[in-house]
Amino acid sequence: MRWEIAQWFEKKWWKNYLKNKPVDDYLTWKREYWNTFLKTINVTVKSNDSVLDAGCGPAGIFSALSENQVTAVDPLLNIYERDLPHFNRRNYPKVDFHENGIEKLEFRNEFEFVFCLNVINHVEDLDEALNRLQKAVKPQGTFVLSIDSHNFRFPKWLFRTLPLDILHPHQFDLTEYKNMVLKKGFGLKNSVLIKDGFLFNYYALVFEKT
After folding, report:
1. What's the rounded Cα separation, in Å, for the pair 11 and 58?
2. What does the alpha-carbon distance between residue 21 and residue 170 come to, in Å, rounded to a whole number?
3. Is 144 within 8 Å of 117 (Cβ atoms)?
4. Residue 39 sits in which domain range?
5. Residue 110: which CATH number?
6. In the predicted model, is pLDDT for residue 160 greater than 80?
7. 11 — pLDDT class (breaks 50, 70, 90)
8. Distance in angstroms (rounded) separating the CA atoms of residues 69 and 192
C-alpha cells in the first residue's frame, strides 16, 4: 500500500515539477547534468557499451547516452508520455523502453553498465529489485546506484515509522545501502558525495560485479 501511494504521488510530483519548465531548456540542462554526473563519479561509458537505465523516469541518463544502445525501464513510462511534454520516446530511437518495475526485470548478464539513479528507495520490493539488477550486469560490469542516505538514527526511525517522506517507501543510511549491494556479489569501487545535506546526503556508489 505504501508503494502504491508513493507511485501516485510520484506522478503528481513530476507534473508539478515540470509544468513551468520549457521542454528544450529542461532537456538540455538534464543532458548536461548527466554528463557532469558521469565525470564526477569517474565513469566512462564507451559508445559500444550496453546500458540499462533502471527506473529511468522521463529524462534519465538514457537522454545523455545518444551513442549507446540503451534499455530504459520504468513502471510509469506510459503516464509520462501521456502527461508530460518533456518525454517522447520517439526522440530516442536507440533506446529500448520497457514499462515495467525493476522487480520484474528478466535480463541475464546483458549490460556493461547498469544505472539505478535516485530510484532504489522508490521500489516496491527492495531485495528483489537488487537481485534483478545484479543478474542484469555482466561479470566485471559496472553498477551505479545513487541514493539519499540518512545521516541520523532517530530521523531514520521516524521516517520509517511515519509517512513523512511519502515518495520514498524505503529509508536507510549509507552503510546499510552499501552492505545490501555488497551481499549481492558486488565490490565497491567508489563512493562519491554528490550533495551534502542535513538529514540526508546524496551519494553515488559505483560497484563492480565480481
Report:
1. 11
2. 29
3. yes
4. 2-209
5. 3.40.50.150
6. yes
7. confident
8. 26
Q: CA angle 138-144-145, nearest 5°?
A: 125
Task: Evaluate if residue 164 carries a pLDDT over 90.
Answer: no
Whether 91 has a pLDDT exceeding 70, the answer reads yes
Neighbours of 148 (CB within 10 A): 21
The answer to whether residues 9 and 167 touch, using CB atoms and an 8 Å cutoff, is yes
Report the percent of the chain where pLDDT is more than 90: 86
Number of domains, the chain = 1
Task: Tell me the longest C-alpha to C-alpha distance in the chain.
Answer: 47
The answer to whether the CB of 111 falls within 8 A of the CB of 52 is yes
Long-range (24+ apart) CB contacts under 8 A made by 171-178 are 171/121, 172/121, 172/147, 173/149, 174/147, 174/149, 174/201, 174/203, 177/120, 177/145, 177/147, 177/149, 177/203, 177/205, 178/205
Distance spanning both ends of the chain, measured CA to CA: 35
Q: What secondary structure does DSSP assign to 105-125, as a single string?
A: ----S-EEEEEEES-GGG-S-
Position 159 scores a pLDDT of 87
